[in-house]
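Pilot study result, target chain (462 residues):
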Amino acid sequence: MDMSHGHEKKILWTATEASLPKGIWERLEELGYRILIGRRDDNIAGRIEQISPRLWVEQVNGDSEEVFAALRTVRGKCPDVPIVLLSQEPSVEDAVKAVKIGVVDYLPLSVQQDSLWAGLLGALQYERPRAARLSVQEEEVEQESPIAVNSSMRRVIELAERVGRSRSTVLIQGESGTGKEIIARHIHKKSGKSGPFVAVNCAALPENLLESELFGHEKGAFTGAIARKKGKFELAGGGTLLLDEISEMPLSVQAKLLRVLQEREIDRVGGEFPIPVDTRVIATTNRDLDAETKRGNFRLDLYYRLNVVPLYVPPLVRRVEDILPLANLFLKRHSRLNQLPLKKLTRDGEECLKRRLWPGNVRELENLMERALLLVQSDSIGGEEIELLSMPSARDEEPEAALKMMPLREMEKKMITQALQENRGNRTHAAEALGISVRTLRNKLHEYKELDAKTAASSPDA
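Predicted structure:
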């Protein structure tokens, strides 16, 4: 191998939709950098590992899941290489994902030259903390297999591994927070497939957007469709598509999903021809789909098509043996992510955890361990601290004020607002706390918005 450029400072530019301005190119060369222009492919991580660039500049252009899968792979193999991501259609959701993966800067493709120069220079000067460099690799080790000490949970894992290499559809059922997505990711890892794992929350998008998100659309298919966009089925090609909260999918989209599962081809919105797809589907739900079919909320034929391999993840209260291994895993994880000293559970603390009922399951346990790590001042976490941290926060208002009589509609709105505040605006978790579907919650919020607009329009000051 030619080692003549072994210590040369290189920048890999695969953002093919964005040209590097001549002025910036010359300034980088003056600083001793050599710019390599190329395209991202399936072996991008291997190429980056081989050439060891000081910076990688990539783009996202309607293929975010595919790009983010590549970013995760590169971050896992080359954690020291800073990444700048340019986006044709910047969004808050993509920006948050990019930051979580470890992207140093996220900029629009149409960025001004001065801003691009500042972003590139900042990325070249960026040195990732050692704890952050280790976190990606250690996180991958953590996620190699779900924790399963309990016998019933071990059977779930064994069955998941057995069906991993098949192409059969899997339906994972269980209460919210039990770790259904962890099982889905484990199935994907055991599949041996080279394609990405792509997840879609069916409850998070309204009907008209969900169809486009799943199947894609052609340019001009509807107002705002300024470019062709691949759907999640195409982006997950050769891999796995997780349909989370499948029970919340509208009936009209259910019919189209059934056809995709039967024919293994999709029709983009506004498209003329079907497109074949090689995508393995895993669906999850916290509802009883059999009961939902009887209520007319879910298609029976789709239920049969999804339920080829049924898996049920038991609630945490029935997996007491798993509580302490999970708790220690979460303490270790959040100690590393928050760069805090690791705290240990006392014997009293361990017994306290095992006695709890865990209505929020594994998610509740992880939140409690993170809270304890941040708020407990000693180096150990006992039963008393756990009890205090588990108590609901006190309200500023008096109990009598909270119980004051009010119109039913106003009380409903207040409860929904409070649930959203307590769940940091997460509609899925708020709906679970209220015991309603995300679709119902979305409709209620739409009603309140319309009502507030009418009230504002009819007020004397309007």
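One observation from the pilot: The radius of gyration is 25 Å. A full batch analysis is planned for the follow-on phase.
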